[in-house]
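This section describes the prediction task in plain terms. A model, or a person checking by hand, is given the sequence of a single protein chain and must write out its three-dimensional structure as a string of tokens. No templates, partner chains or ligands are provided. The sample shown here is typical of the held-out split.
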Amino acid sequence: MIKYITILLIPWVFLFGSLAVRKVLKNKPRRAPEIRIFHIVFIFVLLSIFSLRLSIGMYSVALETGEIYGETRLSNGELFLDSIIHSLQTFSLDEDYTSYLIAGRAMAFDFTGSARFAVTAGFYLLAVDVIAPVLGGSIVLQAFFNFFPKARFWFLCRFSKRKMHIFSRINEKSLAVARSIYRKKTNEIIVFTDVYTDNENETDSEMLQNAKALGAISLKDDILHIVRMLSKAKNKTFYFINDDESENVNLLSRLSGGENCGALSHKPDIRVYYGDDTLREIQTGAYLTLKKHFDEKDMPYIIRNDSNSEMIKDVLCTYPLFGGNSYDISADTLKVSIIGNDAACVKMFLNTYWCGQLADCSLHINVCSDESRESFISRIDYINPEIAESGREGSELLKIRPDSDEKNEPYFRFGFLKADLEKCCARDLAFDSGDLLADSDYVFVSLGNDNKNISVAKAVSKEIELRHFEGTEKCVTVVCVVTDPDLNAMLNETPSYGSVSLRAVGCLTDIYDVDSFYDKKFDALYRTLDKSYSDIKERSVMINSNVEANLKRIYNTESSVARAMHLPYSIYSAFRAGGITGIDIYENGRTDIISEKALRKFFELIKDEKIDSQLAWLEHRRWNTNLRARGFRCAPSGSAKDKDFILKYHKCLVESAKNGEGKGPDMLDMVSRQAGADYKIYDCPSVIYGDGKDEKIIEFYSRLKQNT
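The expected answer:
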């Protein structure tokens, strides 16, 4: 009797053991491979049927009744194989369930002598017999769907309530986004469209295998060919993430058309990966087109994802420009060198332009590229011609008053070196460029290739080390773009030696995450500094076909990001103005929260009228540069609006003197108040927390802690 009970307990041991293992794996710090409940149930039912068959067979043979297995006595091996065959027949509905049920009840009654227990055992046998064919059918259906993925996609569109993530193409970027989705929600559906693989191309085959590992549906059809099926899916998000970003915009415009817009029913999210600001105009046109086909409450939500912009924001937060010269208060210049020719370099130039506005510090931006100086300047002028103009000595933009010749210093000094980046080595770069690397405080390398970036960054680091060989306390930060996650981690785990800190940024798994930059870095600061960050979370607020209203919300959200990013730069500027050294701005090396000690010292410093006045003037310059980098220009005289979000005009984009005197109508009121006043532009924390009393600092700090 003991051996029969032991056999019957096998499936239950497996069930509880699997659930325990699953619980342990899910509680690990790193996400372990998911053990699905379906797999546990399937194996449990299979073991249950097999153990029941084996125990009943052994029982019948022991009695030698011949009622079930005939009059011939079976050996143990034959019993084992016979149990496997009957188990499979149970799954495939090809079994004599009645005789099996009678034999099982008889065995239960013989063991216990209880008719009630025998009836209970009979119900258990019936339950297993019902579940087994259902599981068997689901396995057959799963095999069918794997062989015909389009049929599976059609079925899920019509009948599934699970959220569906639909990608326009399978590539390394889309796989990175899909993996981030899978890490957070394993029960959601991932769909790759336009999947064409070449058997001879190892990369294509590997990407397809990675997609299968995520349980994704891979369709050869593109999105436009499955429009009718997509219109049935009620909970979906689109990801336009082709290698050529112009295809993403084309896809948005084609789906917004009348014959294809049915795919955008049921208020989907549309994430368009595109770095060019012209998407704003296309997005506006898409909203106006969709308005003809959808009510206001049913409009889709179009989200722009600029991977280069998010990466550079991450760079300047994690490795701030003042990092190498943190407490070198005597330094009167900040020299940033940018080596490369891709879009990331342009974004680095723009963000350095406004983040590099530090107290009593002249900003120098040097660019080394294989294009001409005129070509690079034209790319900047395309965004805003006032950017380059603000760096020219004696420019009319720098006038403090229109009726005076007095002008401010340029916002930055610009240096340029044209070099063949594919052929020349870093030693040639370093020596031929003269001042490009000799006194650099910060170097950014992005040539569009991981290996080239690492090679140039390491060579540049060695050259800088040689120039500092005689012994200097100056520390230079060298940052290179490395998209491969393993290479990125390896480079960042390597300790820095000497006077150069070499670091990698741009990891695919960080940049191409389902959560945007707003959700990942400095989340607490955004929430604390401006309510407009919270507004972007509310779909009902952002979904609005009113063009100017949408542009205004985008403006407010980007302003919140700028405030949060610039807060540590403002604190560092206050330390410089006050001659304070030796205080870490961040808490315990983290780059997502300001230390309480730094905040207290900051509030103490800005009580000084001289320091506060200097910071107010500096913050206005920072505000000017940030708006120009976003494409805004000074409003022309006679403009009817103070701010025009469509034409990108702002009347406050004007100069002011350090004593608060300016040419704008309200400039004196904006930048010359004492600490604790309600500045309209001055974005330091004193805006929010009044005179900086201790309880306000504690409140600010506790809110940061709470949201981090």
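For orientation: The chain has a mean pLDDT of 76.
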